[in-house]
Amino acid sequence: MRKVGIIGLGAMGAPMARNLARAGLLQGIWNRTFDKARELAQALEVPAAATPVELARQCDVIMLCVSADRDLLEVVDALADGLQPGSVVVDHSTVGVDTARRAAEQVAGCGGEFLDAPVSGGVEGARAGTLAIMAGGSETALNKARPALEAIGGLIQHMGPVGSGQATKAVNQILCAGINQAVTEALAFGQSQGLNLDRVIEVVSRGAAGNWFLEKRGPTMIRNTFHPGFKLALHHKDLQICRQMAEQADVNLPLTARTIADYERLMAEGHGDEDISALFRLKQ
């Protein structure tokens, strides 16, 4: 049985760790804020490693769930001295394709293998263990990590070599931007027509326009409640990555550009830590 460690215990990483523990796979955890790691470690009855190196020495699969490109490269660098030959580093962060490839080179230099395996499904999916996982890397690395991935995900899709997972996640994030724009605009329009928006959401969700975001975030946004399932500032960061990739490919993303601008306005007003459904604030 694989020994799995996880680094990064935020809104997504902590429930992922719980599901790994439930599957009997979790060997240890590490978090930059050690108090958070120690508290969760006590609850899950696993060790809280003092350093990433210590965790790497104990595990043959190390899963990462951090926020940004620089964070990923720093953590991979910190793991280097502890990585065992044949170990697999699985990154669930959303970063640039080039960053994923740089991380893969670092891990390979230590005798390990790397998967870029971003996820979709939000906090709800992380808690339920039903995340959609889009993996880039070798089949060998994927098979080694599969038991751990099955503990946190409902769908594991191999997309191709390293970087393919992040490219697929970029597609996902662009779609999320468009869905957010459409749902918030439509519900604001319904509000202007004096409709009962709870009834609108219920009936529209059963038809051709139904979608996850409308069902899960519609009822909260119409009450001006924006507790983060996916932080607006993080989606803004992801869309900037998408825009950079599009520029390199000479592809135009006007809706992405509009969403970036809207998010920047909301962030300037202090709403960056709210859910992306806070876009509704600009539509009313």
CA(first)-CA(last) distance = 53 Å
Integer average pLDDT: 96
Characterize the main sheet: 5 strands, parallel
What fraction, in percent, of the residue positions are helical? 40-55%
Give the helix tally.
12
Content-based structural category? alpha/beta
What is the chain-wise order of helices and strands?
EHEHHEHEHEEHEHEHHHHH
In total, the number of strands is: 8
Residue fraction in strands: 5-15%
Shape field: globular
Low-confidence stretches: none
Rounded to an integer in angstroms, the radius of gyration calculated over CA atoms is 20 Å
Strand arrangement within the widest β-sheet reads: 2-1-3-4-5
Question: Secondary-structure map with pairings?
Answer:
Layout lengths: L3 E4 L5 H10 L3 E5 L3 H11 L7 H7 L2 E4 L4 H11 L8 E4 L5 H13 L3 E4 L2 E2 L1 H7 L2 E6 L2 H14 E8 L3 H29 L4 H9 L6 H10 L10 H18 L4 H15 L16
Parallel strand pairs: 1-2, 1-3, 3-4, 4-5, 7-8
Antiparallel strand pairs: 6-7
Helix pairs in contact: 1-6, 4-5, 8-10, 8-11, 9-10, 11-12
Molecular structure report:
With 284 residues, the protein is an alpha/beta fold. It contains twelve helices and eight strands. It has helices at residues 13-22, 34-44, 52-58, 69-79, 97-109, 122-128, 139-152, 164-192, 197-205, 212-221, 232-249, 254-268; strands at 4-7, 26-30, 61-64, 88-91, 113-116, 119-120, 131-136, 153-160. It has a five-stranded parallel β-sheet with strand order 2-1-3-4-5, with helices on both faces. Helix 5 links the parallel strand 4 (88-91) and strand 5. Helix 8 (164-192) crosses helix 11. The mean pLDDT is 96.
